[in-house]
Amino acid sequence: VYWETGAQITSPHDKEILKCIEECVEPWNGSWNDNLVDTSPLKKDPLQDICKRYMEDLKKICFYRDLNSKTTLKFVHTSFHGVGHDYVQLAFQVFGFKPPIPVPEQKDPDPDFSTVKCPNPEEGESVLVFSHWKVFTGNELAALFGWWMFDCWKKTKPSADVKNVYMLATTVSSKILKAIALKEGFHFEETLPGFKWIGSRIKDLLGLGKEVLFAFEESIGFLCGTSVLDKDGVSAAVVVAEMASFLETRKVTLTEQLAKVYDKYGYHMSKTSYFLCYDPPTIKTIFERIRNFESPKEYPKFCGEFAILHVRDITTGDTALLEEELQKLIDALIENFLEPSKNGLIWRS
């Protein structure tokens, strides 16, 4: 569900919409008459117009069209039963490429996702028909995208102010963009998990006249440029193709370039996975134990032999604990630095 900003809804809109739904749970008379849409004066299909404008907008993040048209590389694209095929074909055309080769078994939309065990791009090799290639993680691709988008910006706008440039990532993602930002001088911001927070923050930054080059979440969600304020696999596909074509002229593979990025900005390695659990009480028990590990309201300080330096629990909002921690800090500052008794200081309050 999207707000007028073009980004997914965030609070308070989500709660207000849910409240309205709960106030009117009975379907209206005629709700199941699907012919009503044909006679509604509100009916409009903007798809073709939006598609045309989107493809036109893609030109803003195409930097080597002539090179793309001459590349000897061949690209294979699979939507694995999504709806991206037509748009990726058009996007490659905009960038000057020959059409990417579609994977016939996975090209067309199929709600049963009949060629995969789990229709999740995070599964990597297990969802791709061609599984003997190097499969990059979301964090690895983000390192390449971050390097590429900034490198292209720098070459096309050499006199622009780098302090006006931003990149974003969510808290569950690699900190590689932060490392690039620290070295290159642009801004990096971290948001809560979910592209709704990225989209909302980008809208704010654009309103302040800032330039956002790239944003991502590690679960294969990328946004190059700001044509849309949500994850966009179409632009990501064609941008990575242009990146590969450019690197090929320098006899460098994507894997080799990733190593160069790490060499320059620091190695950021991660391994992400997940367990399946269909029993909410079990999930609650696991996390309650972590939040009350050796004593009530205490997080673990060690995990086996590894010391835990920092815990960020974005699901609890333990306000009482924060207030208690703040009071301890205030007391320490007063006692150690201001020394009111010794210096005869009087509290304002």
Automatic annotation (TrEMBL):
Q: What is a single Pfam family found in this protein's UniProt entry?
A: PGM_PMM_II
- Which superkingdom does the taxonomy of this entry point to? Eukaryota
CC terms in the record's Gene Ontology section? nucleus
Q: Which GO terms describe its biological process?
A: carbohydrate metabolic process
Q: Does the keyword Phosphoprotein apply?
A: no
Q: Which InterPro entries match?
A: A-D-PHexomutase_a/b/a-I/II/III (IPR016055), A-D-PHexomutase_a/b/a-II (IPR005845), A-D-PHexomutase_a/b/a-III (IPR005846)
Keywords assigned: Isomerase, Magnesium, Metal-binding
Q: Which residues form the Alpha-D-phosphohexomutase alpha/beta/alpha domain?
A: 53-126, 138-265
Q: Which GO terms describe its molecular function?
A: glucose-1,6-bisphosphate synthase activity; intramolecular phosphotransferase activity; metal ion binding
Q: Show the PANTHER family listed in the entry.
A: GLUCOSE 1,6-BISPHOSPHATE SYNTHASE (PTHR45745:SF2), PHOSPHOMANNOMUTASE 45A (PTHR45745)
Protein name listed in UniProt: Alpha-D-phosphohexomutase alpha/beta/alpha domain-containing protein
Which species is the source of this protein? Neotoma lepida
Q: What is the lineage of its organism?
A: Eukaryota, Metazoa, Chordata, Craniata, Vertebrata
